[in-house]
Design goal:
This protein is mainly β and 224 residues long. The protein has two helices and 15 strands. The chain is elongated, with a radius of gyration of 23 Å.
């Protein structure tokens, strides 16, 4: 009886092991949760070209993550990262009470960070398939807007430039059967943007923001 149970278990492992192998032409679609955690460093705010002693920081946000992968062979693939728009609170730090808004929520900004990566899957003899990736990201910002309190202080017309940057990632697929798997990954994306805004109707406000987020994803995938 014990030998029969052991035999069934070994056959199950072999079946999953075979299911773990990708091949040329395979297409993988994934969906789940993606969390963007920006670099916590504060970005200096310039007014009229001079350091105002104020700074900005951007908080993290989680959204539905989407992922599409096309395999050229069992090791190499092209991956496209997509998601529903991320929305971040922007906090202003004002230690010298220039505007008396230290620690206040300054604004909200939304962005989409589509990323295309070349991915290399390592050969393994089990159902866990680790990989590394290198890619190019373009982040577009939209719906930038000041909160009502900053508006009352004369701040308006917030705008953030789009950003091109590199992305590096590491992750793995845990195959459940021939088609379904669980994916988890961590990546760093280089996102740098210039924020400009008006103060009292004059276009004198500027901050170079290094968002440079760490992106965590946990997704369910299906192989076609």
């Amino acid at each position: 009886m014990k030998k029969s149970i052991l035999t069934i278990a070994l056959l199950s492992v072999i079946s999953i092991t075979n299911a773990a192998d990708y091949k040329a032409g395979d297409i993988v679609v994934r969906g789940g949760v993606t969390n963007v955690t920006p670099n916590s460093d504060h970005s200096a705010v310039m007014l009229g070209g001079a350091d105002s002693t104020m700074s900005l920081a951007v908080d993290d946000n989680a959204q539905i993550g989407l992922n599409f992968v096309y395999f050229y062979d069992k090791n190499w693939a092209i991956e496209v990262l997509a998601a529903t728009p991320f929305t971040h609170d922007v906090t202003i730090y004002d230690p010298n009470a220039i505007l008396n808004v230290d620690g206040a929520k300054l604004a909200e900004v939304s962005h989409l960070p589509p990323t295309v990566s070349a991915v290399y899957y390592f050969d393994t003899m089990n159902n866990i398939k680790p990989y590394l990736g290198l890619g190019l990201n373009y982040t577009v910002f939209f719906d930038e807007g000041f909160e009502s309190a900053p508006k009352s202080l004369g701040l308006s017309n917030l705008a953030l430039d789009g950003s091109f940057g590199l992305s590096i990632q590491a992750g793995f697929d845990f195959n459940l059967n021939q088609n379904w798997h669980i994916n988890t990954s961590i990546r760093y994306i280089d996102i740098d943007t210039e924020a400009t805004f008006d103060v009292g109707g004059n276009n004198i406000g500027k901050a170079n923001i290094s968002i440079d987020p760490t992106v965590f994803s946990v997704l369910i995938g299906y192989k076609f």
